[in-house]
């Protein structure tokens, strides 16, 4: 058993992954599927590690002023900022609330709301994503205006969840209807929480997590985490102060994702150095450990599945 490693420099982007790939303002984004099948609507999307983990790992890379259109998922969607400065917004029209995230910050977006995001930095930025479930909830639910705008720019989404590009002469296959727009009645089921409703319970700031992880890893997302939730996986942050040479293993695959510094990961028979943007899948039952390999700031996210269903975000009593 040896880990699978996807290097940042080896990531293969897809520029036609979703329905807004031709829509001005969204047509320069790059999507990455690192672990699991993801939710791409395009056959062009490359999957780096296909084996199931109980969750999916992906990423979005965007130049400044590029945005991802309003959509929703049936399972959890968690982002942490790898590079750049990002504005997240939500609601039917994207004006119910918003928050700006810096490098290392993490956002456990409530399920059942429309959300979008844009790079408001001055350079190309990257956000890493964790999606609940092996099938990531069965796809993306788009706000009606996104589907209408896409159609005006040549992309049609079929009810089978696949994209067809009329600019390339493609059309819906016989027997496949366009993806229906949500009705007014259906749209009433999507909440419109304010910034005050969301940020205190779903956003964790990098430096707050670092302060709490000075002696042992801090549980960021979990039943007893900083962000109390049970989305089918847990997320911890490990820092230089809380890293240990002790070997350990898990009964299911886990994932290591550095956000700051270089990390030496070692296991029986091998070792590797991970840098920010790299993703390592550690097999179940493999004894391993991870420590910073250089001086300076160091932090990494650790993700592992749980037995909780990958459904609607759990709200504590």
TrEMBL record:
InterPro entries: Cupin_2 (IPR013096), RmlC-like_jellyroll (IPR014710), RmlC_Cupin_sf (IPR011051)
A Pfam entry, by short name: Cupin_2
Annotated ranges, domain Cupin type-2: 64-127
SUPFAM superfamilies, per the entry: RmlC-like cupins (SSF51182)
Protein name as it appears in the record: Cupin domain-containing protein
The organism of origin for this protein: Kangsaoukella pontilimi
